[in-house]
Design goal:
Blueprint lengths: L5 E2 L2 H11 L3 H7 L4 H8 L5 E2 H10 L3 H11 L17 H21 L11 H32 L3 H14 L5
Helix pairs in contact: 1-5, 2-3, 6-7
Length: 176
């Protein structure tokens, strides 16, 4: 996967402005861009460049904004923020959805056999693997959205938590 050099970030920037209470000019100043350029990005007349996106992720610890930017620049490889009409924007609703999706993902893990090499699987067995992957992706998306909501409500930075867990993961040999 290659990250995009630029991406449409207007809606994400608009939501960041609304959530932070900052003006477009204040955000442009923090990102070291002209207010005009910030306005063009916000109004989707210009794409946001990767270096500006990187700087914005360093400046603003807003989980929804971070998820939006990462989703756009990764070409959809990361979890999107769930904002659909059937998503209730409350931590307990996200908690219930995450639990349900995790249970469905675990159920698929239990019934899917990965004993055979992919080259020896039947089409039906491969369909089972794809269904398992889909359930695990849905679990991941709901977990990411639940963590986003928890960060907002409880003011616990997921970015800071990840940094604090890194030494533990290195000690366990999970990271180098």
């Amino acid at each position: 996967m290659e990250l995009k050099k630029s991406a449409l970030a207007g809606p994400a920037l608009e939501r960041l402005i609304a959530a932070s209470g900052m003006s477009g000019e204040e955000i442009a100043e923090k990102l070291n861009i002209s207010p005009q350029h910030g306005s063009n990005i916000k109004n989707s007349r210009r794409n946001m460049q990767a270096d500006i996106a990187r700087e914005s992720l360093n400046c603003f610890d807003n989980p929804a904004y971070s998820m939006d930017i990462l989703y756009e620049f990764s070409g959809g490889y990361t979890s999107p923020v769930l904002r659909g009409k059937n998503i209730e924007d409350h931590r307990l609703a996200f908690w219930v959805n995450a639990k349900q999706e995790i249970a469905e993902g675990l159920e698929k893990l239990e019934v899917t056999s990965l004993a055979k090499p992919p080259s020896e699987m039947t089409a039906l067995e491969m369909d089972g693997v794809i269904a398992m992957i889909d359930e695990l992706i849905e679990s991941k998306v709901h977990i990411d959205n639940f963590l986003m909501r928890v960060q907002v409500e409880y003011e616990v930075s997921i970015k800071d938590r990840l940094k604090s867990l890194k030494p533990r993961w290195k000690a366990k040999g999970w990271l180098q």
